[in-house]
Amino acid sequence: MILTLITSLSILTLIFSAFFFKDLINNKQHFEKQTSYLTTSVIGFITNFFDTLGIGSFAPLTALLRGLKQIQDKVLPGTLNVSVTIPVMIEAFVFIRIIEVEKVTLFSMVVAATIGSAFGATIVSKLSEKIIQRIMGIALMITAFLMLSGQMGWIKELGVGTAIGLEGIKLMIAVLVNVALGAFQASGVGMYAPSMALVYVLGMSPAVSFPIMMASSAFALPSASIRYVKEKTYNRKAALAITISGIFGVLIAAFIVKSLPLYILTWLVIVVIIYTSITLLKSGFLTKLTID
Quick check: pTM over 0.70? Predict the structure, then answer.
């Protein structure tokens, strides 16, 4: 089953890459002038480096791209999904191989996230900028709360389990939640923190959260990303720069650095997520809600 996952992921990587680079070649004259290759490359390297170490990339990417005025909010979900698809696939290849997870659990959660992402992208690509701001603002605040709960020990079950798989009602809960997490990812909210919290609460070993959340994310991303490419609702220049620099960030983190004391960095990410959530909600509620 692991071989099937790896083979399927390889095929998905090739399919997505074909769609992505074909669109870039066909629309190279339409690259966004307000976006800087250098700035977005640095952003891509940093966020994907820490993504590989378990911090997550969507929230920091959102904060940095918006804070440095590299992107419009309307194309944020598409840009986030498209830009990290290949780097996250590389992460999944690495962690599926080095950390053991019960095969049925991993396969079920991956399929669930993929289904959620496919439906989520279909809906999100048709939403207005204001709705997207509201969705992302609320979801980011929830993510911040989950991360804060882990840091403060409010949820006692977080991080003390030893299981490498699930069965029965726990597996059903994990599958249903992963469908929702796949849909959230399509809307531009990373699934790492919620996925890690899910794994912890269900009594699994903290280590298995890495292959589960990265494989789930890797399989969920292409379906959403291909749709965003087709709909042309992403920033091409930023996506290209983040993809290329992000690959280097992933490889350095996975094979050279491997681990860092992330407690303080996690606190920093929580602050960034809360700040970004507040700014998105503020923008999302400034004017009357409309649907394109």
Answer: yes
